[in-house]
Amino acid sequence: MPPLGSTPEDIDFSALCHSDTSNSDRPNQPSTSAQSNSNSSRGKNTPPSHSTGTADTVCKFYRKGLCRYGRSGDKCKYRHPNVCTKLMNHGPTSERGCKLGNQCRFLHPLLCESSVASLKCLDTDCKKKTHQRYQKAKT
Fold first, then answer.
1. Among 12, 18, 61, 118, which residue's beta carbon has the most beta carbons within 10 A?
2. Which long-range contacts (CB under 8 A, 24 or more apart) does 94-100 make?
3. Which stretches are zinc fingers (C3H1-type) (predicted)?
4. Which pLDDT tens digit goes with each residue over 35-78?
5. What is the distance between the terminal CA atoms of the chain, rounded to a whole angstrom?
6. Cβ proximity of 55 and 14 under 8 Å
7. Residue 64 in contact with residue 78, Cβ under 8 Å?
């Protein structure tokens, strides 16, 4: 079985994405190709919040439910694909759950293990923001 949080990375999404050629000093804004070439390796010109990548790379913070641009990711230069509803509603092991793993065209976010095992998370300070069926203990 593929690990939780797997997503298809081999699909070419570059044809589906629109690039913005405006220059911006703000982090996570689409930049010109000259800027992206100068930031091709992680260094001091790379914003500390997101690693370098392209519009066809899934935002690592979105996968954890922590992207500052939210679910839509309108201003994030990384992809924010739709979440797999089968996985979120039924989990990865249930008969009705999603077992496609890397073959699924939707995002399989990193899930809290407690919410997968017992359908609720009892840890009020849980660092994993994505819970199956969105159940989290009340504070």
1. 61
2. 99/1
3. 53-83
4. 444 444 444 433 444 545 566 788 888 887 788 888 888 889 89
5. 34
6. yes
7. no
Distance in angstroms (rounded) separating the CA atoms of residues 60 and 62: 5
d(CA 137, CA 77): 33
Q: What does the alpha-carbon distance between residue 2 and residue 102 come to, in Å, rounded to a whole number? A: 7
**What 3-state DSSP class applies to 58?**
strand
Q: Which tokens sit at 91?
A: 């989990």
For the question of whether the overall pTM of this predicted structure is more than 0.85, the answer is: no
The pLDDT score that the predictor gives to residue 79 is: 87
CA distance 60 to 139: 27
